[in-house]
């Protein structure tokens, strides 16, 4: 966690500093920054008189680190910390906490004691389930130790950290860093390093610590000579425990302090100057940090957790019940009586006598007292890890259902990790992932959750909504135990040009959650790994954020959340969205890039998929592009490309891996399967009128999923040139271009896989793409038209003519297809009036056609007439210059619009209606003739009609996520009313059926939000009018007039 007092995104509120001098009126921002910097410089003492517990370290750049050694239950340590921070006015304060223990900054004696007393068998079982038998029990026992000391001393541990946090908030520009290794890693490595006998001795010592402890006893733990003797005894008896709990954390803390001690930028010219850092650590870590300060360190070595040993597996599965009953129940229900028996033992009495002895006498006796490892462990609990609480251990089953998620982060184990932990944007070479820390949100809260999506993780939506920690965990503001936040490195061809390194600029991989054991066979077939990768999108800066801030806002987050689940509801492969969280953190956004920015709420979407690896993931190895000159950051690391390809095939295409022993054949089969999935996917998009607005190679899933919902759109009025992204001025990603673009992207993937996939084999597979796409498209369209019994060559022409008629008449894509099920098969019986049947069907479809004014508006050129005239002249006079600034396709599209508009200007409404009637009557006649041939096999007409209606209504949705539906939900949410988002989600979960009571929006005519404090201070989005001034239409309606104002970029 990083806290910056200049940032509006501080995760925890800072104490007010009444001593800050008033600013002179009229200062600019830069002048105010300079004044504050000078104030801090004046306060900083050049030769401070600091307590004896402070150690001074320096870096080659001249930065100074003041290391305050503390005891975690000590009033004097709090005073030492406050004195040091006030004297040196640091740039950074680093404390011996990790992201799992940030609650230590808010904890008090009452909370800690309550958590300790509330421990029961259920929580013991949960700890064991989450962390293993030994690790879970040791965590419980350590909490008991901490609670015992808290009760004896009347004060909670970690007071010096809270004091550091408070004092840092009073220092201008001071940042607050968490410097310790994640506690789950420490516990698991510690327990794994002990033998079974050592684990038992440790548990025994911790079980029966019940003797009174005074504040004077704790203060003695700050004495370096006593600590050194304690540590040396531990090294002798428990070398592995000392290494994992003390020595490895010394290394990690040293690394963090070095990172914090990098030079800082001083105003007004951002000149690099040496930093001043205050580190607040347990006294037991000070000697190790001093020893490591000038050494070369490898922290990745101390971050891995070995898999459970065979012995551990046997213990867990064979003796689990006995351990739960004996060590769980007995230790916590009968410890008092057993403690008295233990206290009568000579060794324990000697230990207690030694602790209580006056310091002078204790010093004399230390030479003859036989310190044992058990004595050392008791002192270690006080000086190093006694500040562990329930929140630190991840045992709070009663607090959060999300803490029960079991992670197995295979991608980070199988693919190379960026060794650098340098903050900020940078080129990442030779790695597929970089470790990151999500930036917490202020006051996160749920907007909505998707029950079906969360069900993939074994979570219940109602339970998640009621979970007070749910919004924190699902926004990345708090990190779940087992989660390893990281950002994925990838490149991409954007709008046809290679862009170089891109990567997860706002998304953050949290880890891979094991699927519940009762997950359906269909899902397991779709995702053979048995794990679901979860991401938070909008969680802050990563090395790949480029010029952005790593944040997403409410409107874009709601659109991604709703569309992910809408596309899934339509039966189309897609990544999922489990929740959307908003907050009181805000960022500036210029929605239309028109110079009118506004503050918007930071929001985060939880995304779920088997994997988010994409075509662009393999482009990080690309050589310098011949057009842009850019190359992939890992160019030359061919072994990593092969490693990633092996990982993808073995993990997500296991059948292909098993069926091909030859690597070239295997890789070709893999590429063929990706081609098949991509062709099927884009055919499904086309058949529901969906358009992906940024169909770059970095937005194409290697698993054939719909990925990255930026500017997307479902067509309203059918137009093959439909462009859903207003910034796609060339129409590269128009509706009709999408199938060809997907093939182009596949070709770029094939290039990226050379030589693992030879070019000859790739070309052969690419030649199969168009027939595959056509096959999928025709199969889907036959179902949409109810052509079920026979397949005829003429069907393709019938479908083409249907689409052309929709275009000519301006018919609504979704509703026209849905209406087709109401056109019945001819009965071929005497007395049926064919002309009347055609007339009724025509009237039905005319209801979905555009009016004259709507068609005029739709066909107006999007280019200024003067610009168009200039381009036409340039195309004749200077073709080379014309090709540089435009293209013939774009100009031709504008000329077609102009021609169509001129035609419409000379047409009356009556003439248009007559032409639309003629066009539809002609097509319906052919359609009924084709339907008649479905009946020639002598089938029962009633059964056939019922089957047709059933199949058609399950392939032609009743509702899709039109832009105006999403916009209405967004504006309701921006007014503090999240119910419309939840209502739309419910409608989209069953898009093929009419749900009683959910036909119309729920946010109608309400005007302002009931709680005006919830509304965004900036008002509603863009230049759309307020909901109270609009006509609200049913979800299955054609868009209202105001929908034309919506602009998605």
UniProtKB/TrEMBL annotation:
- Metal-binding found in the keyword field: yes
UniProt keyword list: ATP-binding, Magnesium, Metal-binding, Nucleotide-binding, Nucleotidyltransferase, Transferase
Which residue stretches belong to region Disordered? 1-27, 999-1028
Source superkingdom: Eukaryota
Please name the InterPro entries in this protein's record.
Answer: SelO, TraB/PrgY/GumN_fam, TraB_PrgY-like
Cofactor(s) needed for function: Mg(2+)
Presence of keyword Nucleotidyltransferase: yes
Return the Acidic residues bias intervals.
1-19
Q: What is the similarity comment for this entry?
A: Belongs to the SELO family.
According to UniProt, the name of this protein is: Selenoprotein O
Species name for this entry?
Cirrhinus molitorella (mud carp)
Per the UniProt record, the lineage of the source organism begins with: Eukaryota, Metazoa, Chordata, Craniata, Vertebrata
């Amino acid at each position: 966690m990083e806290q910056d007092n200049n940032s509006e995104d501080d995760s925890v509120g800072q104490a007010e500093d009444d001593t800050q001098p008033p600013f002179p009126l009229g200062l600019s921002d830069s002048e105010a920054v300079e004044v504050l910097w000078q104030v801090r410089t004046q306060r900083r003492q050049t030769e401070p008189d600091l307590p004896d517990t402070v150690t001074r370290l320096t870096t080659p750049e001249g930065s100074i680190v003041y290391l305050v050694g503390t005891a975690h239950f000590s009033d004097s340590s709090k005073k030492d910390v406050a004195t040091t921070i006030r004297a040196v006015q640091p740039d950074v304060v680093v404390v011996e906490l990790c992201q799992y223990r940030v609650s230590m900054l808010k904890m008090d004696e009452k909370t800690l004691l309550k958590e300790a007393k509330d421990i029961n068998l259920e929580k013991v079982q949960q700890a064991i389930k989450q962390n293993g038998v030994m690790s879970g029990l040791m965590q419980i026992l350590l909490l008991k130790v901490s609670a015992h000391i808290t009760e004896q001393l009347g004060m909670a541990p970690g007071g010096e950290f809270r004091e550091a946090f408070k004092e840092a908030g009073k220092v201008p520009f001071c940042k607050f860093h968490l410097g310790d290794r994640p506690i789950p890693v420490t516990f698991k490595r510690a327990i794994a390093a002990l033998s079974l006998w050592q684990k038992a001795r440790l548990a025994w010592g911790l079980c029966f610590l019940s003797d009174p402890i005074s504040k004077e006893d704790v203060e003695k733990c700050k004495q370096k000579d006593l600590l050194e003797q304690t540590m040396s005894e531990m090294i002798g008896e428990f070398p592995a425990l000392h290494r994992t709990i003390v020595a490895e954390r010394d290394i990690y803390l040293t690394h963090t302090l070095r990172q914090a001690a990098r030079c800082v930028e001083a105003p007004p010219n951002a000149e690099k100057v040496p930093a001043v850092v205050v580190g607040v650590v347990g006294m037991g870590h000070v000697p190790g940090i001093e020893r490591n300060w000038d050494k070369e360190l490898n922290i990745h070595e101390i971050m891995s957790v070995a898999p459970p040993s065979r012995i551990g597996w046997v213990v867990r599965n064979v003796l689990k019940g006995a351990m739960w009953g004996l060590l769980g129940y007995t230790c916590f229900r009968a410890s008092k009586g057993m403690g008295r028996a233990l206290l009568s033992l000579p060794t324990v009495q000697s230990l207690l006598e030694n602790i209580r002895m006056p310091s002078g006498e204790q010093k004399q006796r230390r030479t003859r007292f036989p310190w044992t490892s058990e004595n050392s462990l008791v002192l270690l609990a006080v000086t190093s890890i006694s500040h562990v609480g329930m929140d630190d251990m991840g045992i709070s089953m009663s607090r959060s259902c999300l803490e029960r998620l079991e992670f197995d982060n295979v991608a980070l184990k199988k693919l190379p990790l960026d060794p650098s932990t340098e903050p900020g944007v940078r080129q990442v070479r030779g790695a597929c992932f970089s470790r990151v820390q999500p930036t917490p949100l202020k006051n996160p809260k749920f907007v909505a959750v998707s029950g079906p999506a969360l069900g993939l993780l074994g979570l219940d939506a109602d339970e998640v909504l009621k979970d007070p920690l749910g919004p924190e965990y699902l926004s990345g503001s708090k990190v779940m135990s087992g989660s390893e936040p990281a950002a994925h490195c990838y490149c991409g061809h954007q709008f046809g040009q290679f862009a170089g390194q891109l990567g997860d600029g706002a998304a953050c991989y949290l880890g891979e959650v094991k699927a519940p054991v009762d997950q359906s066979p269909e899902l397991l077939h779709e995702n053979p790994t048995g794990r679901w990768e979860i991401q938070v999108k909008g969680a802050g800066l990563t090395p790949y954020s480029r010029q952005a801030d790593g944040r997403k806002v409410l409107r874009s987050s709601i659109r991604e959340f709703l569309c992910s689940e809408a596309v899934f509801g339509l039966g189309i492969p897609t990544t999922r969205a489990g929740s959307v969280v908003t907050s009181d953190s805000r960022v500036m956004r210029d929605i239309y890039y028109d110079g009118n920015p506004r503050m918007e709420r930071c929001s985060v979407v939880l995304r779920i998929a088997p994997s988010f690896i994409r075509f662009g993931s393999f482009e990080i190895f690309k050589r310098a592009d011949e057009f842009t000159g850019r190359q992939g950051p890992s160019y030359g690391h061919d072994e990593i490309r092969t490693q990633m390809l092996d990982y993808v095939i073995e993990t997500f295409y296991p059948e292909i891996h098993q069926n091909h022993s030859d690597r070239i054949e295997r890789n070709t089969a893999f590429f063929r399967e990706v081609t098949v999935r991509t062709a099927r996917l884009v055919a499904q998009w086309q058949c529901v009128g969906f358009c992906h607005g940024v169909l770059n190679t970095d937005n194409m899933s290697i698993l054939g999923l719909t990925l990255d919902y930026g500017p997307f759109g479902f067509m309203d009025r059918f137009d093959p040139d439909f462009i859903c992204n207003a910034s796609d001025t060339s129409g590269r990603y128009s509706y009709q271009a999408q199938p060809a673009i997907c093939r182009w992207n596949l070709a770029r993937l094939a290039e990226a896989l050379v030589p693992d996939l030879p070019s000859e084999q790739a070309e052969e597979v690419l030649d199969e793409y168009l027939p595959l796409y056509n096959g999928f498209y025709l199969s889907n369209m036959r179902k949409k038209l109810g052509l079920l019994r026979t397949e005829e060559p003429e069907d393709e022409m019938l479908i083409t003519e249907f689409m052309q008629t929709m275009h000519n008449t301006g018919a609504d894509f979704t509703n026209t297809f849905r209406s087709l099920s109401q056109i019945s098969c001819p009965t071929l019986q005497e007395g049926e009036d064919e002309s009347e049947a055609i007339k009724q069907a025509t009237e039905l479809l005319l209801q979905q056609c555009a009016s004259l004014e709507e068609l005029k508006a739709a066909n107006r050129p999007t280019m200024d007439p003067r610009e168009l005239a200039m381009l036409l002249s340039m195309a004749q006079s200077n073709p080379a210059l014309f090709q540089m600034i435009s293209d013939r396709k774009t100009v031709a599209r504008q000329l077609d619009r102009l021609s169509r508009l001129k035609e419409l200007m000379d047409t009356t409404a009556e003439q248009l209606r007559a032409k639309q009637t003629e066009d539809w009557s002609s097509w319906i006649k052919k359609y009924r003739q084709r339907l008649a041939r479905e009946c020639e096999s002598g089938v029962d007409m009633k059964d056939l009609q019922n089957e047709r209606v059933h199949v058609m209504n399950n392939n032609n949705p009743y509702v899709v996520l039109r832009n105006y539906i999403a916009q209405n939900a967004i504006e309701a949410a921006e007014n503090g009313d999240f119910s419309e988002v939840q209502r739309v989600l419910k409608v989209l979960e069953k898009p093929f059926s009419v749900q009683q009571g959910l036909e119309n929006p729920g946010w109608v005519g309400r005007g302002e939000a009931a709680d005006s404090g919830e509304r965004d201070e900036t008002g509603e989005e863009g230049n759309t009018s307020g909901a109270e001034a609009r006509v609200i239409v049913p979800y299955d309606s054609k868009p209202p007039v105001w929908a034309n104002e919506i602009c998605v970029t």
